[in-house]
């Protein structure tokens, strides 16, 4: 997630659409892992439909011209792209900061050296659990040793390392262990991100949903660590919007800060947006990125406040949370223009409350019934 | 030990030609530098100490309160973890 810290003066722009800051490049939907919480769409893009190296290079050139300064090279697993080094070089050559977002599987010393030489600036490693067995159960694949090795390689290469942990029912009780793992692995930053229910995670919501006490305990744990870690490691807590009853400022607003390019070149305002009906998302193969960002129907659909209905329209928080997430509104109500039901002011909030407070078997799940993500035909 | 400020390895300093601003780009964050902040950061090369940075800026901006403001600014960036 990109956050822009800025003062009031300095950056003056004519009114109208502001340029984007960041680009999420989903280089491939292929992945050696099968995480049940994966936010990739349930309709994954096949490998044969992926953009070529030259097409990605062109995407980064156009993105830089448009104002993008930062990119997350993600997937799926970006390391599945054999031409990753070339893609990194193209992004860096265009002046765009690159962070690799990886499961760690497939990161070897030579590979990392080549990526670093090509201009890679930072690595974010996904972690499922601090316990190897639990980790592999969540990921649906052998992967813990590979992650440990990847972390060591990144540290040895003197690249900044961040860990990203998606939190849910089966690992929320391990916050202490996860922070200690981050310290042991030399991470500069850990993002503890409560599951966002999109794509595969939405399908697995029942198995992933934590209960309120679990969240409260984890939150306390994070607070305790914050004091102790000050200056040593940054600890980010991405709130569980279902449980908190607050809408999250999804992507910093629709078409406001960042764009997502899917493996086949389709461009979305948000990685979850592929699930929205009638979006008619444009593709870099047919249009220039500038037109896509400024002019396309897709990027203007929920830009600004015009589309808002009640209660968002008259709510003071609308400039902070932008009425929440459109994909979530659609997933829960069937209408993408409604207030995000995660918000306690939404007339649909009972939907979310019922999901959270539905009685469940006590205790952490030992072998949850995950629908592991699978690649298509 | 005298402090010779230098950007942390996760921070990239660059000029943004589209917005006409100096930026610090971090893995998850972009910081837009206001006013002359960019010209101060440009001197943080790990060789100059704070006194040298102040002296150089004072020469460039005679009469400006660099001796008071620059160390405070550098301290703030250090506290954020952007300078070390
Ligand atoms: S969440 Fe898991 S399955 Fe999905 S892309 Fe990341 S590592 Fe792969
Ligand atoms: S009503 Fe809309 S704008 Fe107000 S807090 Fe809820 S989601 Fe945000």
UniProtKB/TrEMBL annotation, chain B:
Pathway(s) annotated for this protein in UniProt: Cofactor biosynthesis; pyrroloquinoline quinone biosynthesis
The protein, known as: Pyrroloquinoline quinone biosynthesis peptide chaperone PqqD
Domain of life: Bacteria
Subunit description: Monomer. Interacts with PqqE.
Organism classification: Bacteria, Bacillati, Actinomycetota, Actinomycetes, Kitasatosporales
Organism: Streptomyces maoxianensis
Keywords: PQQ biosynthesis
Gene3D superfamilies (UniProt xref): Coenzyme PQQ synthesis protein D (PqqD)
